[in-house]
């Protein structure tokens, strides 16, 4: 990985402000060029601080929020108000506190179940991105699990052919506690101008080392499958996650 694409911050608050500032710039540039800005939100807990910092920016400044379309990288097969829902986290930290209209928020309907929900989201993406040349997304935000999974692309399942052919797939054998999920595939996640990995905490230092070294590549380390086709991959880490890196 090009060292210029790894950004390490003193703590997570500084990281959150830096990432939200980058998102603001990318959104402004996209709006200035006269198009919608497609932002894919990550699940998990890591992005919560970024979402709060971004909400602050949207509340304070005219950033072209009305041109942003919100998508999700993955979802658990639970109702949207369930505590495990990625949508619920995004609503509570960002979407509920900014003037965005519901028709610009494209949540994954996890309550339909993995197979039906994946089919439903696939057709949503087809409809909304039909007129858009690749890359479909301006920004994809991703976390990474300590096993190297990202979105809901897990080491075992990511070898399946459908992950190569489709944009959205069902996951019916994810690790507990939420076994059923729906996820965008590397094919979809790589169709982005920018992919930002957000990595915080000492428990992520080993997986960050693997991610940065690039030594672990392939389906057994799904985060390594994320290589934007035409875009740029950047990693934003706090010091505690980056403690094991040699500079
Ligand atoms: C999910 C996420 C998943 C997450 C990682 C890291 O739905 O769980 O999409 O890929 O980003 O598991 O999770 P934390 O940010 O909570 O450590």
Shape: globular
Q: At the third CATH level, what is the topology name? A: Rossmann fold
Annotation field: number of helices: 8
Q: State which percent range the strand residues make up.
A: 15-25%
Name the structural class: alpha/beta
- Could you tell me the radius of gyration in angstroms? 17 Å
Count of individual domains: 1
Please describe the biggest sheet, giving its number of strands, its sense, and whether it closes into a barrel. 6 strands, parallel
Fold blueprint:
Elements: E1 6-9, H1 12-32, E2 37-41, H2 48-60, E3 68-72, E4 74-76, H3 86-93, H4 114-129, E5 137-142, H5 162-165, E6 168-171, E7 181-184, H6 186-189, E8 192-199, H7 205-213, E9 232-238, H8 239-242
Helix pairs in contact: 1-2
What characteristics describe this protein?
single chain, 247 residues, alpha/beta, Rossmann fold, 6-stranded parallel beta sheet, 8 helices, globular, binds 6-phosphogluconic acid
């Amino acid at each position: 990985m090009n060292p210029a694409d790894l950004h390490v911050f003193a703590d997570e608050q500084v990281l959150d402000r830096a990432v939200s500032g980058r998102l603001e710039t990318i959104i402004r540039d996209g709006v200035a060029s006269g198009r919608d800005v497609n932002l894919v939100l990550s699940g998990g807990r890591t992005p919560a601080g970024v979402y709060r910092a971004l909400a602050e920016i949207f509340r304070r400044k005219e950033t072209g929020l009305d041109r942003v379309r919100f998508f999700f990288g993955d979802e658990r097969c639970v109702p949207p108000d369930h505590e495990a829902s990625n949508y619920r986290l995004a609503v509570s930290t960002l979407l509920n506190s900014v003037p965005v209209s519901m028709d610009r928020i494209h949540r994954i309907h996890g309550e339909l179940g993995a197979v039906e929900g994946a089919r439903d989201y696939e057709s949503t993406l087809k409809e909304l991105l039909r007129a858009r040349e690749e890359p479909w997304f301006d920004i994809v935000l991703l976390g990474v699990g300590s096993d190297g999974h990202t979105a809901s692309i897990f080491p075992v399942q990511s070898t399946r052919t459908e992950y190569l052919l489709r944009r959205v797939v069902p996951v019916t054998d994810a690790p507990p506690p939420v076994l059923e999920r729906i996820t965008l595939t590397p094919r979809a996640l790589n169709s982005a101008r920018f992919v930002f990995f957000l990595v915080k905490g000492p428990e992520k230092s080993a997986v960050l080392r693997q991610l940065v070294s690039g030594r672990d590549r392939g389906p057994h380390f799904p985060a390594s499958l994320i290589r934007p086709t035409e875009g740029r991959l950047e990693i934003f880490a706090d010091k505690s996650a980056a403690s094991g890196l040699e500079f």
